[in-house]
Amino acid sequence: MPELPEVETVMRGLAAVLEGHRIVEVEQRRPDLRFPFPDNLVRRVEGRRVLSFRRRAKYMLMRLDGGESLLIHLGMSGRMVARQASVPVMARLTPQGAASDARGHNAPPEAHEHLVMTTDHGWRVGFVDPRRFGAVDLVATEVEDAHRLLAGLGPEPLEDAFTDAVLSAALVGRHTPIKAALLDQTVVAGLGNIYVCEALYRAGISPRRLAASVAGTRATRLVPAIKAVLTESIGAGGSSLRDYVRADGEVGRFQERFAVYGREGEPCPHCNPPCPGIARIVQSGRSTFFCPRRQR
DNA sequence: AACGGGACCTGATTGC
DNA sequence: TGCAATCAGGTCCCGT
């Protein structure tokens, strides 16, 4: 599910529910996700107050009083569900927006809800992740960025420090398609399969082009394309490809604005006269969508 | 060192 | 209808 805009949206939703409140109970329902939960997770989180949230790449950091932060990665299939007794605000929605399956405090847990936190104002916030590619850890807040999962990450694409010069420097000498380079979280942090495809389309750059040949003038087009597609998606509440929802119960709507992702065979939005259709190829085992006419 | 492929999981969809 | 194959928004490890 989640790339940077989806993680940002989920995090803002969690902040709205949790900030300033105390976590009075933690239930850990299995020993691990992608790797084991941290030692004494329940004891270290129970009784703590939630101070603030931060996002780094596709990771969320929930700062707790007591000096530790809960680090959460949603993997491919992870989502957060929040509910309150008899007042479902973040119920599961269908992509069409019809509410369903609202659960109260005493309802049975839904499948694959591996971690549940209950707050002092009666909310239950759960981490649901069928495929278990997600991750949870605790890290000392003062040295968050030294965590092994964060230490090697590249620049945040929406920060001013992410410039064409910075991207160019990361691409120089790389003998891999630009598609693969942009998925590399040490080059730029937070892009995934969807937004790489969309950014390359906006920049008119072929996903097959060697990364090194994008350094320079093409990077000058690519950086604004990356920033724009991420910003627009965050503004739309991210993309909902399954039943992912925002904190306020609305589905993300950015998928309606995909120009190429998942649109094999359709003419692209900007070719006039219409192009023969968006192509799908496989690069390092993953689908790439692009317009062969516009993207060189 | 940088790269591609495979592994890790479950569920939804597609095709026979 | 039923079953198998394929695909999915991510990352990490391994061999080359």
From TrEMBL:
Coiled coil (UniProt feature): none
TM ranges: none
Catalyzed reaction equations: 2'-deoxyribonucleotide-(2'-deoxyribose 5'-phosphate)-2'-deoxyribonucleotide-DNA = a 3'-end 2'-deoxyribonucleotide-(2,3-dehydro-2,3-deoxyribose 5'-phosphate)-DNA + a 5'-end 5'-phospho-2'-deoxyribonucleoside-DNA + H(+); Hydrolysis of DNA containing ring-opened 7-methylguanine residues, releasing 2,6-diamino-4-hydroxy-5-(N-methyl)formamidopyrimidine
Active-site residues per Swiss-Prot or TrEMBL entry: 2-3, 58, 286
Ligand binding (DNA): 112, 131, 174
SMART domains, sorted: Fapy_DNA_glyco, H2TH
GO MF annotation terms: class I DNA-(apurinic or apyrimidinic site) endonuclease activity; oxidized purine nucleobase lesion DNA N-glycosylase activity
Cofactor note: Binds 1 zinc ion per subunit.
Formamidopyrimidine-DNA glycosylase catalytic domain ranges (all copies): 2-134
Domain FPG-type: 259-296
Cofactor(s) named in the record: Zn(2+)
Keywords: DNA damage, DNA repair, DNA-binding, Glycosidase, Hydrolase, Lyase, Metal-binding, Multifunctional enzyme, Zinc, Zinc-finger
SUPFAM superfamilies in the record: Glucocorticoid receptor-like (DNA-binding domain) (SSF57716), N-terminal domain of MutM-like DNA repair proteins (SSF81624), S13-like H2TH domain (SSF46946)
Pfam family for this entry, one: Fapy_DNA_glyco
EC number: 3.2.2.23, 4.2.99.18
InterPro entries registered for this protein in UniProt: FPG_cat, FPG_Glyclase, FPG_N, H2TH_FPG, Ribosomal_uS13-like_H2TH, Znf_DNA_glyclase/AP_lyase
Assembly mode: Monomer.
Family: Belongs to the FPG family.
Known function: Involved in base excision repair of DNA damaged by oxidation or by mutagenic agents. Acts as DNA glycosylase that recognizes and removes damaged bases. Has a preference for oxidized purines, such as 7,8-dihydro-8-oxoguanine (8-oxoG). Has AP (apurinic/apyrimidinic) lyase activity and introduces nicks in the DNA strand. Cleaves the DNA backbone by beta-delta elimination to generate a single-strand break at the site of the removed base with both 3'- and 5'-phosphates.
Name of the protein in its database record: Formamidopyrimidine-DNA glycosylase
Origin species: Roseomonas alba
Lineage of the organism: Bacteria, Pseudomonadati, Pseudomonadota, Alphaproteobacteria, Acetobacterales
